[in-house]
Design goal:
Structural class: alpha/beta
Strand content: 15-25%
C-alpha cells in the first residue's frame, strides 16, 4: 500500500530548518509502517528502536544528555553505524518519557541527524505535564487512509489518478464505479490493517473481526492510561457517539449519556478521547466571520469517531446494509456520510472545521471552513436529495461566498453553488 503522507515526510527531510519529527496519530493508523517505508525509500539505512518496555533504551537516555555517548550506545544496540544518510526511528515514544524529552537535545546538539518518532496518546503527554519538547520538534498528524488512498490500494494507480486529477466530466463517466468503492470504503474505513485485509480478499466477517480487535485495543488504552476516576465516564462518552450522530440534530447532548448529565461531569472524558486521537470534535459557530475562531461557541459541538469503518463495527451495522444498495447513504440520519466527509477533510485542513447554527432560525450547515480569507459553507446530503435551503440562505447573506453541496449526485456547477459527489470531497479546497 502507499500512503500520501510520505510526500510530506520527504519535504521534512529536505527542509533546511528540519527538527526531530514526531508522527502523531491514534493507534493502528499506520505510523510504524509509514516511517519504515519512508526509511526504505529515502535513506541508505534505518535504525529502528521500539520504546515499549525497552529497558536497554531507557538506560541510554538516563541522566544528562551527552551526544557522543548516546550515539555510540544507539549504534551498539542496533549493531550498525549512524551515517549522514541514516533515519533514526523511535517508535511508541510516549512509553519512554526520557526519549521524548531527549528530542529537545537532538534538536539543539545534533540538528544534522534525521530523527523521526512515532507516538500514540501523545496528546495525553502534553496535558499530563511530561517533558514534551515544545518548540523543538516538527509534528505531522497521520490519520486513517483517505478514500483516494483506498482507491489506490484497491484499484491501482490509473483510477487513483483519474480521481485525483481528471476533470469532473471524466469522473462522471466512472460515477457508478466510485459509488461502489464508496460503499466498500464505508465498510472498511481507512485503518490500514483492515484495508489490507480487504485487498487480500479476506471475508467480510474476518474484516469485522479485525475492526473489533482495534476497538478492543482502544478500550484497553482507556483502562490502562486514563485516571481511575475518569474511566467510566470516558467509556460512557465513547459509547454514546454513534447514538448522538444518529439524531436529526447531531449536536452533542450530555443528557443523552445519562439522565441529568452535565458538561462538568464529562468534559475531562471528552478531552481524553480527543488527546488519544480516537474521536474528532467539531465546534459550533453562531456567526460567520473571518477568523472563524473568533465566533466559536464552546458549548455547542459534535463528536465523531475517527473512522467510518470502526463506527460501523462499533454500532454493529449490518454489513449488507453498507455494501448493498443505497441504504447506508439514506438511513442513519446521514451519520456515516457526515463522518466520511470529515474523515476526508481532516488530513487536508490547516484550520479548524466548524459547523454553523444560527441563533435566530433553523438555519444550519454541516461544516463551515475557512480557506484563507474566504468562507466555505458545506451542506452534506446522504442521498440524491438536493434541497439546500440553509446553504442558499447562507450564500445570499454572505456576499462573495459560494456554496458547496456534497451528495450522491454527480458533479455540477451553478451560479451560487458547486455540487460535488461524495467521492470528490478531497477536491473541494483545490
Amino acid at each position: 500500500m502507499k500512503r500520501l503522507i510520505i510526500q510530506k515526510l520527504n519535504l521534512w527531510k529536505a527542509s533546511k530548518s528540519r527538527k526531530p519529527l514526531i508522527l502523531n496519530g491514534a493507534r493502528q493508523v499506520g505510523k510504524t509502517w509509514v516511517l519504515q517505508e519512508f526509511g526504505k525509500q529515502s535513506f541508505a539505512k534505518t535504525l529502528y528502536f521500539n520504546c515499549d518496555k525497552n529497558n536497554q533504551l531507557g538506560e541510554v537516555f538516563k541522566g544528562p544528555f551527552d551526544k557522543q555517548s548516546v550515539l555510540r550506545n544507539l549504534e551498539a544496540i542496533a549493531g550498525e553505524s549512524i551515517t549522514n544518510d541514516t533515519l533514526i526511528v523511535f517508535d511508541e515514544i510516549q512509553e519512554l518519557p526520557a526519549v521524548l524529552e531527549a528530542l529537545k537535545y537532538f534538536c539543539e546538539q545534533a540538528p544534522e541527524l534525521y530523527i523521526a518518532s512515532a507516538g500514540s496518546l501523545l496528546g495525553l503527554s502534553i496535558h499530563e505535564g511530561t517533558g514534551f519538547p515544545v518548540g523543538k520538534v516538527d509534528i505531522l498528524e497521520i490519520f486513517p487512509m483517505t478514500f483516494p488512498e483506498f482507491v489506490l490500494a484497491v484499484k491501482g494507480p490509473r483510477l487513483f489518478q483519474i480521481l485525483e486529477h481528471d476533470s469532473p466530466s471524466t469522473l462522471n463517466i466512472f460515477h457508478d464505479t466510485f459509488v461502489q468503492l464508496l460503499r466498500e470504503y464505508y465498510f472498511t474505513g481507512g485503518m490500514p490493517e483492515v484495508v489490507n485485509a480487504f485487498v487480500n480478499g479476506k471475508s467480510n466477517q474476518e474484516i469485522r473481526t479485525i475492526q473489533n480487535a482495534i476497538l478492543y485495543s482502544y478500550n484497553k488504552d482507556i483502562s490502562k492510561h486514563a485516571a481511575a476516576k475518569d474511566i467510566q465516564r470516558i467509556h460512557q462518552v465513547w459509547n454514546s457517539i454513534p447514538q448522538q450522530l444518529a439524531k436529526e440534530n447531531k449536536k452533542f447532548v450530555y443528557g443523552a449519556i445519562k439522565t441529568g448529565g452535565r458538561a462538568k461531569e464529562f468534559e475531562n472524558a471528552i478531552q481524553w478521547l480527543l488527546d488519544a486521537g480516537i474521536a474528532y470534535k467539531v465546534n459550533r459557530v453562531r456567526k460567520a466571520g473571518i477568523p472563524l475562531k473568533f465566533y466559536e461557541d464552546l458549548e455547542g459541538f459534535k463528536l465523531y469517531f475517527l473512522d467510518c469503518g470502526l463506527m460501523g463495527a462499533f454500532a454493529e451495522t449490518p454489513i449488507e446494509d453498507i455494501l448493498i444498495g443505497s441504504k447506508i447513504f439514506e438511513e442513519y440520519k446521514g451519520a456515516f456520510t457526515e463522518l466520511f466527509v470529515l474523515q476526508q477533510l481532516k488530513p487536508l485542513l490547516k484550520t479548524t472545521p466548524f459547523y454553523f447554527s444560527a441563533d435566530d432560525s433553523k438555519q444550519e450547515l454541516d461544516f463551515l471552513l475557512q480557506a484563507g480569507n474566504s468562507l466555505v459553507p458545506i451542506e452534506v446530503k446522504a442521498e440524491e436529495n438536493l434541497r439546500a435551503k440553509s446553504l442558499r440562505q447562507f450564500v445570499s447573506e454572505h456576499e462573495g461566498t459560494k456554496g458547496v453541496r456534497i451528495s450522491m449526485s454527480r458533479y455540477r456547477e451553478q451560479d451560487w453553488l458547486i455540487n460535488y459527489p461524495l467521492y470528490m470531497v478531497h477536491r473541494i479546497l483545490a
